[in-house]
Protein: Nitrate transport permease nrtB
Organism: Acetobacter aceti
Amino acid sequence: MTVAASPSTSKSVWSLFRFRVAIPQSATLLAALLGAAAFLGGWQLLVSLHVVAPVFLPTPLRVAQTFVRMCTDGSMLPNTVVSVRRVWLAFLLSALLAVPLGILMSGYRIIGATLEPMIDFIRYLPVPALVPLAIIWFGVGETTKIFLLWLGTFFQLVLMIAADMKRIPNEYFETAYTLGARPRETLLPVALPAMLPQLMDSMRISLGWCWTYVIIAEIVASDSGLGFVIWTARRFMKTDQVMAGVIMIGLIGLVTDQCLRLLHRKLFRYQ
């Protein structure tokens, strides 16, 4: 005997697909689990039907087993710590320079007019093409790796921060002027708090960009880091180890991104 779904239940399910409608947390979690299950099922199906040879695309179970083994035998976690340290060091250096420069570029248009064309030019340069120059300038040590990660992050971030500054309504500054503030005195007490929610989002996005350059940075005469693990496994066609390293980067990114989203919601409840 089958029980037909009630009209109210069907209506509530379809309401989740309405444009820009808020959905409950339970529906968000269920959708994420279903999406992951569909992805893994399609992956397994490709291998089972021999559409792709296992040497090029191992099964999800084999990759999971390799991931666990590499985490327990000491070949994954120490290199993960090295990569996390490099990424955060380069990212914090980028943020330390980009935040004040982006605010000044937007607050003082002459500074923006002077620097923006040059920054636009540099940010379109492919980072791999600059690896030889980085080696010539800094050698093959740790400085080169940090520089390449910084290079892929800073020039994107500074323009995003300048755009965040431009979005602040002029009424905020005009109110400060009526209270006796000078233009330069509005940067910290007015501009920075007003742009802080968007600033955190910009930094969260740019942190993800920084991780995308970790492979490039860690193949430069490196003997540690997740990029080194992935590149070494590639040389010997160990596809499961390559994918395990990629999954570790993805997991770090997912956890970091969700933590920053949670912090954003806690700090800016009024939004």
